[in-house]
Amino acid sequence: MEINPAVTFKHDRSVMYAKRPRVLIVGAGLAGLTLGILLHKAGIPFEIYERAAEVKPLGSVMYFNCTTANLFKQCGIYEEFLALGKYVSAIKMCNENRELEFSVDFEGHDELYGANGYIVSRPQIYDLLLRQIPKERVHLGKKVLSMDQGGNGVLIRFSDKSEAEGDILVGADGAYSAVRQGLYEKLKKTNKLPASDALPLPFSTVCLVGQTRPLSPEEFPDLAIKNSQFRKFIATDKMYTWNTSTTAQNTVCWGAILFLDEETSKDNDAFRNSEWGPEAAAAMCEQVKDFPIISGGDKILTLQDLIDRSPKELISKVMLEEKVFKTWYNYRTVLIGDACHKVEPTNDVVK
Hints:
The protein has helices at residues 13-16, 30-42, 69-74, 78-84, 109-113, 122-130, 178-189, 262-268, 282-288, 303-308; strands at residues 23-26, 46-49, 61-64, 86-87, 90-94, 100-105, 118-121, 138-139, 144-150, 153-158, 163-166, 168-171, 203-211, 230-234, 240-246, 252-259, 292-293, 301-302, 316-321, 323-324, 329-330, 333-335, 341-342, 349-350. The chain is of the alpha/beta class.
């Protein structure tokens, strides 16, 4: 059936029920790939379109708590996930004097909930998800210019002058989702968009993340401990928090978050974008290099020691926004992930 949403459609449920819907997913991030895996296992046809020309291993670490186990089991990748992850028995909250203030303990979750929580570096979890998707289903370099939807289908147009037709459109394309912008533009014209959804994304944090090369326990003694050593540091005289965690690959993932006020928001506005890249990170590395960390041994280390041991391509800075949009679906279009509920990095715990 030829689909042309440029004309007016009528519902034809006999056609809709006669076939499985073809799902067009815009965005090959974690949300888009996870949806693709589930559709693939269910035998539902789908295609994934990603604006980037290549996939870059950006980001630091993610903590998946015990309630996420069923998702990985449903995807058929739980054992692989466990092999990549490192068990987290606690998140240790520390002060600038390298002293433990308190601990958020997770011991006993296996007995209570049937699973434990694990730390996995973001590049590792991304690669695991990507490997489950048939290569021919992921299309890179596909920047969305416009989208239309009608009674019998959806259509998206790309900057390379190609088009894609389907039955359901899923916007999984991040905080500045082209799908959301296209959808909201149409809803606004018909006075169906809530006023709050028309407001720009608020931003309150700047985040620097990185990951070291594989280290030895001599360099970072915490790596010799079976459980991941996940530590968060809270400053008393500056608007920063920072964290470190050890991974199963013997790397140390780290991050620093600056909470902005009105003045620092202006200073950082030039960095406002949704791209995780290394080019803007150097200045912030200089700002946080002396922040104290705990290595597990007698060495007195700071973030500078981790920065020096981190490949430049694995260090990135980004200004992160936080907003939950009221409108997350309309007709044949639905938004998932950061496209509809953007959270800042202190909430980067998957539950």
